[in-house]
Write a structure and sequence with these properties.
TIM Barrel; 19 helices; single chain
Length: 649
């Protein structure tokens, strides 16, 4: 009989022990009951605890609360499974199970690949190469997908989960209003109170796993001033209190909401009272929420709308941002709060501060939001010489390449000395423009390595939690490479595909390689076309895309012969692949029309397919975000430009 002895007493160790027990029972169903006990002096069985409990060396870590070291030394009957902190113990359990054959291919129980086999002696020791390996909520959310995502994250090596906004109303609104699928699903409005409770439930799940909790982001320029994002959905829109108007950015001689949206409205940061109110709101939140590991303090989610009053014009927005952050640091220090603060290098504040510096850089981490970068290209191995241009207020052009963004961030670091993390959008809409999957996974893989090489301490992904259509290769590559940047890309692909698709996985890989021959991601991303005056006009691309029909037709007999697989996760993988072939041919028709310049027919064909494919949403919604897919192609076929975040409260 196996025994699991908890050397350390902590709720996350309790959870880790239960997870180990569950999966050992599944792997060895005839092995009998497994007893879990708190036994700090145990010398037999599986022993779960901190590395310090076993007098193991942790000197490679700079900060034991932030750096994850995993240490495993077991035989066939048990042994040490340890970590540098509570979260790392859980990560060590999942790593032990992974080495012994387990895989988590999709969130939820249907994504579990758990072999029936005896465990083998296992020795493994590794400190994660990136301190921050994260995921942030985005897309059309419903609560089960959020809970499943939080549960899934540490199973692929992630250690950070971020919940954006005080109340992420919009993300739940997108799902429950069934935007981009109104023809097939009835609206199910939910209240901000519902969403607030769900956020608290997510926080509890994050805490259970001791994941780093990152919180808020946008919203500090709105809620402290009586501006409620949720009011945008009410008749009459947002009402601006009279006393708030002097604190709002002045544009073209007038102060007020920017495009009627609180979350997109900047403040008059030269106004000491505006800064004081914002600082006090942040300090009050930090004091009331000590469980928040990193509090994100971002400005408005829009560009070229910073205050143009005489006082604000004396400094750049980035300089005023640093003034605000220094005042925040002083108040947090006064309150004896050690809250870590994350600020954002994003849109206008991509340009570094020119005169101000951080007084206490150890408190701060800067988050690079490379929103407008090209996702058909990865970071250069060595950055080319790039000039950091002078900021011109409210007249910027967003940077087109990731190399430029990284260069600007490094200039920020030279001036202010804080640590760097990147906030990326691989799991946002661009993933839908790379149907072949493999080329996009390669870009993601190289980006992880490239950021690491340039001194960044990790990455947080802003994107849908339902990024598993047709499979989870991208996030599998993401989590594994963040943990170990020496991971081999081809080995990761083989590992994921062989577990997801079984012994015939090479045929599936060949299908995805064929998709690359017909769908050019750079073209679908709007980065390549023949006529600068007619975006997406490219008859040659149209001819290539017609090849998808034969590719799918030839692949269908193979899919039909793989409906029932030895593992449920494999059956799910093939089911999603069958739907994916329909998706690929479905986007081909409007794309071909668009490439020939038949814009109206392309829009009509896209709307027809969006509605038709939406009939499958209920069955595949755990894996495919119908709203995000629709949003991705809105500006391709319908001329709708999507602003990154509509926002929460």
């Amino acid at each position: 009989m196996f025994k699991i002895n908890k050397i350390t007493s902590h709720p996350t160790v309790d959870f880790a022990a239960e997870e180990l027990k569950k999966y050992l029972r599944m792997m060895m169903p005839d092995a009998g009951e497994i007893v879990i006990k708190y036994a700090p002096d145990a010398t037999d069985g599986f022993r779960l605890g901190l590395m310090a409990d076993f007098s193991l060396d942790t000197s490679e870590a700079d900060d034991l609360t932030l750096d994850d070291i995993v240490h495993i030394d077991t035989d066939c009957e048990g042994g040490i499974i340890a970590g540098s902190n509570m979260r790392s113990i859980l990560l060590a359990v999942y790593k032990y199970l992974t080495i012994n054959g387990c895989r988590w291919l999709f969130p939820g129980v249907d994504g579990e690949f758990i072999p029936v086999k005896d465990v083998a002696p296992t020795a493994y020791h590794k400190m994660a190469d990136n301190r921050y390996r994260g995921w942030c909520n985005e897309g059309a959310e419903f609560q089960k997908c959020m809970i499943d995502a939080i549960d899934f994250a540490p199973k692929v090596g992630l250690n950070v989960f971020m919940l954006e906004f005080f109340i992420p109303n919009t993300y739940y609104h997108w799902y429950f209003e069934h935007l981009h699928n109104e023809a097939n699903r009835e609206r199910e409005p939910v209240t901000p109170q519902n969403v607030y409770q769900w956020k608290m439930a997510c926080e509890a799940e994050i805490a259970k796993r001791s994941l780093q909790f990152h919180d808020i982001g946008h919203g500090w320029s709105a809620l402290p001033f009586g501006l409620r994002q949720e009011d945008m959905y009410k008749e009459g829109g947002v009402k601006v209190p009279e006393e708030t108007i002097p604190f709002l950015a002045q544009l073209n001689g007038k102060r007020g909401l920017y495009r009627g949206n609180p979350n997109h409205t900047n403040l008059c940061l030269s106004n000491p009272e505006a800064r004081r109110r914002m600082v006090e709101a942040i300090v009050d939140y930090a004091e009331g929420n000590p469980h928040v590991d990193y509090l994100h303090v971002w400005l408005a989610d829009s560009k070229c709308n910073h205050c143009e009053c005489d006082e604000c014009n004396k400094k750049t927005p980035s300089d005023w941002y640093v003034v605000l952050l220094n005042e925040l640091d002083a108040r947090l220090t006064e309150k004896k709060l050690d809250t870590r603060i994350v600020f954002c290098c994003y849109v206008d504040t991509t340009w570094p501060a020119e005169v101000e510096t951080l007084n206490n850089p150890d408190r701060f981490t800067m988050l690079l939001g490379a929103y407008s970068r090209n996702y058909s290209e990865h970071i250069s191995t060595e950055l080319p010489p790039i000039e950091v241009t002078k900021y011109v207020k409210n007249k910027i052009q967003l940077l087109p390449t990731i190399d430029e963004y990284v260069t600007y961030a490094l200039e920020w670091q030279k001036r202010c000395k804080m640590s760097l993390v990147t906030y990326e959008y691989h799991f946002y809409i661009n993933q839908f423009y790379a149907p072949d999957l493999l080329s996009y996974a390669r870009v993601l893989y190289e980006d992880v390595k490239g950021y690491k090489n340039n001194g960044f301490l990790g990455m947080i992904q802003d994107g849908t939690q339902r990024c598993f259509f047709p499979n989870g290769l991208n996030i599998y590559v993401y989590g594994n490479t963040l943990f170990d940047v020496s991971s081999d890309f081809d080995e990761l692909v083989e590992d994921y595909f062989s577990h997801a698709y079984g012994e015939d996985w090479r045929e599936v890989k060949k299908f995805f390689e064929g998709l690359y021959d017909v769908f050019d991601p750079a073209y679908l991303m709007g980065r390549k076309y023949t006529d600068p005056k007619r975006k997406f006009y490219d008859p040659e691309q149209a001819n290539k895309m017609r090849g998808v029909y034969k590719l799918v037709s030839d692949f269908k007999p193979f899919l039909e012969s793989h409906k029932v697989m030895p593992y449920r996760a494999q059956s799910i993988a093939y089911k999603l692949l069958r739907y994916y072939t329909e998706w690929c041919t479905g986007i081909a028709k409007p794309s071909i029309l668009k490439a020939h310049g038949a814009d109206e027919l392309a829009a009509e064909a896209f709307n027809e397919f969006l509605s038709e494919f939406g009939r499958h949403e209920v069955e595949i919604e755990a894996y495919c975000d119908q709203h995000m897919f629709g949003m991705a192609f809105d500006n391709r076929f319908l001329g709708k430009l999507h602003i990154m975040n509509v926002g929460g409260q």
